[in-house]
Input
Amino acid sequence: MDRILLDRIPLKFDLDKALEINRIRKNSGFEKEFVKVLKIAEEKLSCKAVLRWADVGEIKNGTVQINDVVFNSKVMADNLKNIDKVFLYVLTIGDELDNEDRIEEAVIKDMVKGTALYQGMRYMEDYLKEKFGFESFAYMNPGSLPDWPIKNNVDLFKLIGNVEEAGARLNEHHYIIPWNASSGIIFENGEGYLNCTLCKNKCIKRRAPFDQQEYERIFA
Ligand code: SF4
Output
C-alpha cells in the first residue's frame, strides 16, 4: 500500500478545541458567529488527502534522495539521516466556503478554514498511528524554511502523483490551490523536530522558540 487516498476525511469539530486554538472567548457574540460558520463548514467542506510511502535513499552534502528525486536541504539531510521511509502528503479542505453567502465575516471564514485544516491533519495522524504504528510525528513543508523553499512542491507533487485526487494543484508561484492546504514530508521523530526552532520569523503561530545553537549546528 504505497499510495493512500483519504477522500472523505470527516470534519466534526470539537467546539472547545476550536475555541481554544482560535483564542475565542466563550459566550461572546463572536463565538456565536464562529459556531454558525463551523456548522456550515461541517456540512460543506470536503477534506481530502493523498499520502505516498517513499524510500529515503542516499544522503550526502546536504542533499537527500527520496525515491528518484534528489532534494537540496541541509535540514532534511539532518532530519532523515537515520530514517529509511517517509510519508509524502498533500491535504486540502476544499473551497466550498469561498462563495458561501451565509458567511458575512471573512475573518471568521479564514479562522474556520484554518481549524478545518488542523482537524484534517489530526485525522491523518490518527490514521498513520492506527494503520502504521506511528508514535511521533515531525513535518517538513516546502516554504516553511528558506532551506527548503516553496518551489519544492513541484517535485513533491510529482513524487506523490495525481494530487488532483486530493483536489490540489499548484499555481505559477508553486503555492497550493485551493488555499488552506498543506503538503510535505511526515517522518517519525522521537526528538520532536519542529520547523519553528530554525525559523527566524516573528510569528504568532510559533510552537517553539528559535534555537540559535541548533541553527548553527545545521547551517554552519
Ligand atoms: S515560527 Fe511561524 S512561520 Fe516560522 S515555522 Fe513556526 S509557524 Fe511557521
